[in-house]
Structure formats: structure tokens, C-alpha cells
Task: structure prediction
Amino acid sequence: MSTCFRLAVVQLHVTKVKADNLSRARGLIKEAAARGAKLVVLPECFNSPYGTGFFPEYAEKIPGESSQVLSEAAKESQVYLVGGSIPEEDDGGKLYNTCPVFGPDGSLVLKHRKIHLFDIDVPGKIRFQESETLSPGSNLSVFDTPYCRVGVGICYDIRFAELAQLYSKKGCQLLVYPGAFNMTTGPAHWELLQRGRAVDNQVYVATASPARDETASYVAWGHSTVVSPWGEVISKAGSEETVVYADIDLQYLANVRQQIPITAQRRSDLYTVNAVQEG
Result:
């Protein structure tokens, strides 16, 4: 197993035209692969505007139009592709905020349905209720690559430290969170949460946001980021459309864990975090 590989995070400018979003994403995936990326992460709701009114309009089955494009893009670029998220409709008509992951052969490796729905109310600033149209997922999502094991969450999932701890216990060395924080929570918590999850679990953390669009009904913060197991920001975007890169060094991760051996020092006789339902 290689101890170092290149990660690319795509900060896509999302429009109301699904076909344009898919085409642009495919082009940026190809660009990332040409620059040596082995794993590419797209943003939350990369194929549609983010909003409870948009989810039913843009929802698809998996497999469907968007997942087919992602499958083809992963195969043609020979990368592991964390497909951001799309509004998914299941056979029973329920809607989910879902991240499909594809292998370099184009196969669907897993799909992560957002576990924690974004229901918040900050008076005078922002109110948003994903639960008005979406249902929560009920499974943890981990996949293996030749480089490392990866845990997947979506946006609001990052606020729940227990999920990251469970992924770490399962052997994950990289956690990826497609996410669309906003202009209130973004500047306050976006980087803080990523650094916290990275330091607590001594893992790499990568987040992929849509690019900021001041004309959208929901304005994303942007600033897609990669954080090291030491809690250092090693790559970060601004607010515009871009691709950011980071070299994930698993030997460095092992060194951090050896120097500060918190895993061995945990007092499991006093406390523990366990999954109620394995996923």
C-alpha cells in the first residue's frame, strides 16, 4: 500500500441547469486526474441548487442521470470519486441527500445518505429545515482504496463528533465531507469543525463546498479545505470555483499517532463510543 497519494477537492459553481453542472464537474474531475489526483471529492448538491424547494424538482434515482455521469467520469479518469451529493428519490418516493462513491472502474462503491438533517434556526440570520422534504439516512459509510480507508459524511454530519470517532475506530485515515455551510455558520464554524475532527481522531479531513454565488437563494461559504492529522490547514480554496489539491501522507499520519498516542491512552474502562447499527 502506497504511503502517499494526491487528493483533489472540486469547488464547483452550481447553477440551476443540471446538464451544465454535470458537464462542468466532469471536466474538473478530468483536470484533477491529469494533475495526479487519485481521489476526487465533489461538493454537496453539486448537480442542483441547494434548497428544500429544489430537492423534489432535481431528485433522481440511483442509478440515474447524475450517477451515470459520475460513473463514466470516474472510469475515464481512473480515480476514486466521492460524488458530492445529489437529491435522491428512492423507490418509495422518499427523498435523501445522498453521496454516491465510485471506483476507478466506474462501479458504485457505496452511497451515503446524510444521517443528520440540517434543521437550524438562528434568529435574524438563517432558518433552514431539510426535514421539510428530506429523510435521514441510517448507515455509516466507509470504503477502502489501495491508499487508505475513507469515511464519508455530508455537511451537518461533521458537527457530530461521535460519527468521526466511529470512523476512526473502523480504521479510517481520511474523512471526507461534501458540505455547503452558509454565510452565518461558515465563517464561525467551518474550519473549526474540520480541525477539531482531524485533531480528535488524528486523521486527514477534506471538505468540498460549492463555490459562492451571491445571487443564489442559499449562499454557500465556499473555502473547501484539507486538514492534516496535526490540525493544520494544508490546502484551502477561496470563494470562487477552483480545484484544490493535497498530498495525503500516511507515514506522517502514523508519526502523529506515535508521537501523541491517544488511541492507546483512551480509558475504555470509563467511556466508549459504539455504533448501535453497523453500516
Observations:
- The mean pLDDT is 96.
- The longest helix spans residues 18-34.
